[in-house]
Amino acid sequence: MLRSVPTFFAAVTLTLAGCAADEAALVPSPSADESAGAATAILNAGVSANLGSGDAPAKFLFDPLYDDHFGSLQKLSPDLIQRIVGGAPPYDGVTAVFVSHAHGDHFSETHLARMLTAQPQLQLVAPQQAVERLRGSDLWEESFAARVIGIALENGEQSDTFEIAGATVEAFRSPHSGWPDRHAEVHNLTFRVSTISPAPQRSGEIAFWRVMHLGDADPGAEYFVPHRKFLSRSRTGLAIVPFWFLNTDDPESLVGMTLNSESAVGMHVPAREPGWLAGSGWDYFTGEGQQVPVPEVP
């Protein structure tokens, strides 16, 4: 379900995106992913971000394919899996796939290997922990290696900045939700991806479409202290956060100040939606094709 954004984000989001303020502007559309400067739901933590236009395509998928739904999440249908793997609209022209971590509800070595085979231009970026699992798949081919980027970080560390098809890619590692009692061994990465918006700015400044996908990050503000300089360096237009970020004591501060983001959308919502979520005032994804704009940031 998609709700309106909190008031202090709404003016910026709606002004920059030129979007109507009612929910009718946010209903799923078969061609929704073709909208430039937008993020579109797949299922669970899966999100497509279209940050390019015209002759400079830049379409990225975050956590699109997985094997497990653990009895509480939505299950990928065979048809949806095949559309993503084969690059059928609206999943055509994908530049790169980002994997936050190697849990079964975010990652499938089998489906991703099939996708690399079907789309020879595709790049994959993932924690080294996930890459090792992919390499262990029966479907792994050594030719994939040139298109697969593994990132090995400790909690509190950031990766070097690199580029994919003109997009700037950055990553940092913070604890998986439940740390240290649960999932302490899991390498959870947040990706921040930026492209230059083609829209001219009256001030003469360059504007960016910048999204950040946090995987299954723990929302504890203390876990973002090591990344304070990284986060403050660049304002994010849209933070794609696990839905539990929206149920913290002060989610507005967590999103706007700690993450330095203009807006946020919740993902990874269980099939049985938590009762508090509909009244939270935040946007969140529950079904394929739901879309929110990515506000431009200087």
List the defining traits of the structure above.
alpha/beta, 6 helices, 298 residues, globular, 17% helix, 7-stranded mixed beta sheet, 15 strands, 8-stranded mixed beta sheet
Shape: globular
> Roughly how many Å is the radius of gyration?
18 Å
Give the mean pLDDT: 87
What level of helicity do the residues show?
10-25%
Describe the protein in words.
The protein is of the alpha/beta class and 298 residues long. Helix content is 17%, strand content 24%. It is built from six helices and 15 strands. It has helices at residues 7-17, 78-86, 109-118, 128-135, 228-233, 251-258; strands at residues 38-41, 47-50, 59-62, 94-98, 123-127, 148-151, 162-164, 167-173, 189-196, 208-213, 236-242, 261-267, 283-284, 291-293, 296-297.
Question: What's this entry about, in short?
Answer:
The chain is an alpha/beta fold.
Layout of strands and helices, then pairs:
Layout: H1 7-17, E1 38-41, E2 47-50, E3 59-62, H2 78-86, E4 94-98, H3 109-118, E5 123-127, H4 128-135, E6 148-151, E7 162-164, E8 167-173, E9 189-196, E10 208-213, H5 228-233, E11 236-242, H6 251-258, E12 261-267, E13 283-284, E14 291-293, E15 296-297
Parallel strand pairs: 3-4, 4-5, 5-6, 10-11, 11-12, 12-13
Antiparallel strand pairs: 1-2, 1-14, 2-3, 7-8, 8-9, 9-10, 10-15
Helix pairs in contact: 2-3, 3-4
